[in-house]
Every structure is written in structure tokens, then in C-alpha cells.
Write a structure and sequence with these properties.
This protein is an alpha/beta fold. It is built from nine helices and eleven strands. The protein is globular and about 45 Å long.
Length: 281
């Protein structure tokens, strides 16, 4: 992957949809190269919109964005494509054609760096299938490498989407609710694989997560969003139970967790929540 810097800076960015809904309100966010940040908040907080703006999928209505010191919206078409090839995006519902084979879906992460002839040839005889299997093995999905994608569950497709970004070796990884369809064990494994990319390659990682437990465990910095605004941006150790409950006040008394219920015991950081699994000891 390119040696382009992986720092990201968003300055007073707003975004208004055509229907008049204001999804972002003067959001500013600075991400150092190689940093790891979780964006948390209730449904409708603007997390997905923020990820799409950072990915250059949406142009802000106001404010500015710079990736590696470059304003993407000042680039020509070919330069913008090269920049986007350095950004890996994990979608909540990966846009994968159902008849595509898993190996081809994963190797799609390489398309931004391959010449056109190789991309076309790989549709018929996958180029570097071993790399695709390696990425899938990290997500406990290696045995499905040559299956068609329409034979996979929603959770398996989410892991294929993560494997695609692992194969891409992007400088910046943006993950939008990447494990929402997974059980707690697989969600933990999958987030761990993304974190490993951050730690071993120095890729900048930003993940929007609804599950508070995953954010607390894996991310040293938390950004809380509500109503299109950032309400706090702090080291995880400085985020209190009160702050989290205020953030999720519209969703009830319990903080959202990955596949389990939560009982608040008023502690901080790792002890902010105690997990309660019905029917389990």
C-alpha cells in the first residue's frame, strides 16, 4: 500500500441531507497517524455519516476534511481514486454481489493497486488466493474461501468485508458497525483482527460501534456522538459511567452490549458494566 500519511483531520464539518436533515453539526476531529479510535453513541447519532465523510463517500456541506494533509475534494479524479485506494472501509452490510465467490470478494481489496488486466483476469482465476485465505483464516472463515457469497449468513458476510480490508492493507481503516451481526465471541475476534492491523502495520483505525463493551476493551480513545455532534472525546480511562449513561439516555437504562444485557454497577472504565447472559452462569 502507498506510503501516504494516514493522519486525518475534520474541521467544523457539517452535512445536510437533501431532505433537510442535518446529520453532522460542526464536527471537528483530529486523528494522528496510527491512532485507534471508537466512535460510540445511540442509533441516529451520526456515526455512519461521520464514517462516510471520512471515507470521502460524502462531501461535507460545510467545513473541511484533510487526509495526509490533502483535501480530497481539491483533487482530480485520478488522484482521488489513488487516495481512496489507501482507505479501507468496512460496511455494516457489505455491498457484495451474491453470486460472487468469497475469494473474489476478498481480493477486491487489491483492485485499487492492480492494473486493469489483472483485476479482470482475477475474476476467472483468482490472483493471490493464498492472501485471501490468510485474511479469512484470521476471522475463522478460511474454509469458505471458494464458496459463493449467497451461501453465507449475514455475519459471515460481515467477516468477508473485514477480510477484504485486511487484504487491502489500507493506511486508514474506517469500520461502520463492522460486527453488528456477530455473536460476542466472533465479534471480539473480528475487532481484534482490525486492532492487529493498527498495531502491527500502524494503520489508523476508526470504528463506529454501538456495543460499549467492545469499545471499552479494544480502543484507547472514545468519541461519543449524539444528534450529529461530538459530546465527548476522551481517553477511554477518562470516560465515566455517568458520561456513558447520559450518551445513551434515549435508549433506556442499560448500556448496549454485544449480544448480552448489561447491569450498571456505577464503576468506571472496564468495570462500567457487568454482563448478564440469560440462561448462563
Amino acid at each position: 500500500m502507498s506510503e501516504l500519511p494516514s493522519d486525518v483531520r475534520l474541521v467544523a464539518a457539517s452535512l445536510v441531507h437533501p431532505n433537510g436533515h442535518r446529520a453532522l453539526r460542526a464536527v471537528s476531529l483530529a486523528l494522528g497517524a496510527g491512532e485507534r479510535v471508537a466512535v460510540i453513541g445511540p442509533s441516529g447519532a451520526g456515526k455512519t455519516t461521520l464514517i462516510r465523510v471520512l471515507a470521502t463517500s460524502l462531501k461535507p456541506s460545510g467545513g473541511g476534511l484533510a487526509i495526509g494533509g490533502v483535501d480530497p475534494w481539491q483533487l482530480g479524479a485520478s488522484a482521488l481514486r489513488r487516495l481512496r485506494a489507501t482507505i479501507g472501509v468496512v460496511h455494516q452490510s457489505p455491498p457484495i454481489p451474491p453470486r460472487l465467490r468469497v475469494v473474489t470478494a476478498v481480493l477486491a481489496g487489491r483492485l485499487g493497486t492492480w492494473p486493469a488486466w489483472r483485476s479482470l483476469a482475477s475474476l476467472f482465476a483468482p490472483h493471490d488466493a493464498a492472501a485471501a485465505r490468510t485474511a479469512l483464516d484470521r476471522l475463522d472463515l478460511g474454509e469458505r474461501v471458494f464458496d459463493r457469497c449467497d451461501r453465507l449468513s449475514g455475519g459471515q458476510l460481515q467477516r468477508v468485508g473485514i477480510a477484504r480490508v485486511l487484504c487491502q492493507q489500507a493506511n486508514v481503516i474506517l469500520a461502520d458497525e463492522p460486527v453488528s451481526a456477530l455473536d460476542p465471541a466472533l465479534a471480539d475476534l473480528s475487532v481484534g483482527a482490525l486492532v492487529a492491523e493498527n498495531e502491527t502495520r500502524g494503520a489508523t483505525l476508526v470504528a463506529s460501534l454501538h456495543a460499549v463493551d467492545l469499545a471499552l476493551k479494544w480502543f484507547p480513545r472514545l468519541v461519543g456522538m449524539k444528534d450529529g455532534e461530538i459530546v465527548f472525546d476522551r481517553p477511554t480511562a477518562a470516560v465515566t459511567s455517568t458520561m456513558l449513561h447520559e450518551l445513551y439516555a434515549t435508549e433506556g437504562r442499560l448500556l448496549p452490549q454485544q449480544g448480552v444485557d448489561v447491569v450498571d454497577h456505577g464503576a468506571r472504565r472496564a468495570n462500567v458494566v457487568a454482563l448478564k447472559r440469560p440462561g448462563c452462569q
